[in-house]
Amino acid sequence: MRRKKEKKPALILRITERCGWKPGRTMKVVLEWVETLIVAVAIAAFLMTFVVVRMTVPTGSMIPAIEPGDSFFVNILTYHFRDPQPGDVIVFWHPYELLVHSVRAGSPAARAGLPVGREIISLNHEPVSSIAGAGAVFDRLLDGTRILIRVSNAPPFDLGIKEEGIDSLDDLGIELRERRTRFVKRLIAVGSQTVQIKEGVLYVDGARLSGEQFTRSYWMGDPRIQYGIHPTRVPEGKFFVLGDNSRDSLDSRFWGFIDKENVIGVPLVRIWPLPRVGLIR
After folding, report:
1. Domains along the chain?
2. Please, which residues have CB within 8 angstroms of residue 34's CB and are 6 or more apart in sequence?
3. Residue 203 burial class via C-beta count within 10 angstroms: exposed 0-12, middle 13-18, buried 19 and up
4. Rounded distance, CA 36 to CA 192, Å?
C-alpha cells in the first residue's frame, strides 16, 4: 500500500523552523491561524482593489433600481473587457464641490476680496460644481459682461468686466480645486450621439429610447437644467448620464458630460439591506 503523503506544515511554521525556533503544539496552532488570517486579508485587499469596491448610496436618485441606504459591490473588471453601453447602470467619479483654492495677490479677485477656501455656488447666476463647468460658463460670457461669482455664506463678488485677454478665472487670479465623489447613474448616450428630452421622453440620435431601463418620465422642470433641452451632442470620450428618479437627481442635465476615463465599474450585487440582497439591474 502506498503511504499517505504527510501534510506539509504551514509556511509560517517552516519559516520559524529554518530560523531555529521550534514552537510548541499550542503555538503552532496560533501561528497557523495567523497565517490563515494574513492570507484572508491579502485576498480581500486584492479583491477590493482590483476586482470590486463597496459603495453605499445616500440619495434616492436611482429609485427603484437602487434605494437610499443600499450598499453594494461594484465590479471594476467589466469595462476592461467591453465598453459601457447605453442602459448600463454605472459608477463613476465626478466633482461635487468647487472651491476657491487660492487668490493671486493684486489680482481682480484679490481686490474684490474673494475669500479662499469657500465653495463656489455660481458664476453669473449659473450653478457650477466643476472646473470644466466653470470654464464652460465663463466661455459663454460675452466681452463687456460684468463677472459675478458667488461663494458659500457670502453675497456675490464683482470681479469686473470681461474684456479681451481675460479668458478664464485664472486670468482674474483665481485657482480652483475640485472635490470628487462616486456617483451612480444610468448611461444614456456616448460620444458622437445626440440626446434630447422632449415631454419627459428620451431621444438619442432622433429615435425614442425603448426598453424597461427607460420606461419612465424624465423631469425637465428645474430652471437650472441646461443640457438635453435641445438636441445635445455628446463629445468623444464623454458620456451623458441620468438618474432613474429624475426629480431627485443631479446628473448630466445639470453638469453636462462625464469623462469616460472616470468610470469605475458597474453595480454587481446588493449586500444591504438584507431583504433586498441580490443582483442589481
Report:
1. 11-49 (no CATH), 53-95+180-279 (2.10.109.10), 96-179 (2.30.42.10)
2. 12
3. middle
4. 51
The phi, psi pair for 202, rounded to 5°, reads -90, 135
In whole angstroms, what is the distance from residue 49 CA to residue 215 CA?
A: 35
For the entire predicted model, the pTM comes to: 0.75
* Average pLDDT over all residues of the chain: 88
- Distance (Å, whole) CA 95 – CA 33: 44
What is the C-alpha to C-alpha distance for residues 281 and 87, in angstroms, rounded to an integer?
10
Q: Return the H-helix or E-strand segment holding 254.
A: helix 252-255
What percent of the residues of the chain are helix, what percent strand, and what percent coil, each to the nearest 5?
25, 35, 40
Using an 8 Å Cβ cutoff, are 248 and 59 in contact?
yes
Q: For 17-58, what is each residue's pLDDT tens digit? A: 777 777 777 777 777 777 677 766 665 565 555 455 778 888
